[in-house]
From TrEMBL:
Keywords: Nucleus, Ribonucleoprotein, Ribosome biogenesis, rRNA processing. Belongs to the HEATR1/UTP10 family. InterPro entries: UTP10. GO terms for cellular component: 90S preribosome; small-subunit processome; t-UTP complex. Involved in nucleolar processing of pre-18S ribosomal RNA. This is HEAT repeat-containing protein 1. PANTHER family: BAP28, HEAT REPEAT-CONTAINING PROTEIN 1. GO terms for molecular function: snoRNA binding. It is found in: Nucleus, Nucleolus. GO terms for biological process: maturation of SSU-rRNA from tricistronic rRNA transcript (SSU-rRNA, 5.8S rRNA, LSU-rRNA); positive regulation of transcription by RNA polymerase I.
Length: 119
C-alpha cells in the first residue's frame, strides 16, 4: 500500500483529500500553469491536509505522503509556511532537520530564515 492508504487506515479523515491530492488525476496536474483560483484552492486543501497530518508526522506513511506532495505539487516551494508548521512540533527530532533541508531558508522575505542554522 502507499502512504496515503496507510494514513486512511489510521484516520478516515484523510479520505477527503484523495480526489485532489492522491488520485490518478493528480498525475497530470501541472501546478505552474493553473489559474490563481485553482492554485488558491489547492493551497487550502494542502494546508488542511498538513494540519491533519502533523500528529502523524513521525510515522512512515506520513513521510511517504509528504514525499508524494513534494514531488507532485512542489509543496517545499509553494507551501513552505504550512509545511514548516506541520513539522515544527517535532523540532527536536531528526526528521525535522531532514524536512527543513528541502527549503531555501536563506532567501529574502522568508519568514523562516532563523531556521537556516538547523539545516
Amino acid at each position: 500500500t502507499n502512504g496515503f492508504e496507510e494514513l486512511c487506515l489510521l484516520d478516515s479523515g484523510f479520505e477527503e483529500f484523495e480526489r485532489v491530492l492522491f488520485s490518478d488525476t493528480s498525475l497530470t496536474f501541472e501546478r505552474s500553469i493553473q489559474t490563481k483560483e485553482v492554485n488558491d484552492s489547492l493551497n487550502l486543501t494542502i494546508r488542511r491536509f498538513l494540519i491533519r497530518l502533523s500528529p502523524y508526522f513521525l510515522l512512515s506513511p506520513a513521510h511517504k505522503a509528504l514525499e508524494w506532495l513534494v514531488h507532485r505539487f512542489f509543496i517545499h516551494f509553494y507551501n513552505v509556511d504550512d509545511l514548516i508548521r506541520c513539522v515544527l512540533p517535532y523540532h527536536e527530532h531528526n526528521y525535522f532537520t531532514r524536512a527543513i533541508q528541502m527549503f531555501r531558508l536563506n532567501e529574502k522575505n522568508n519568514n523562516w530564515g532563523w531556521l537556516e542554522s538547523a539545516q
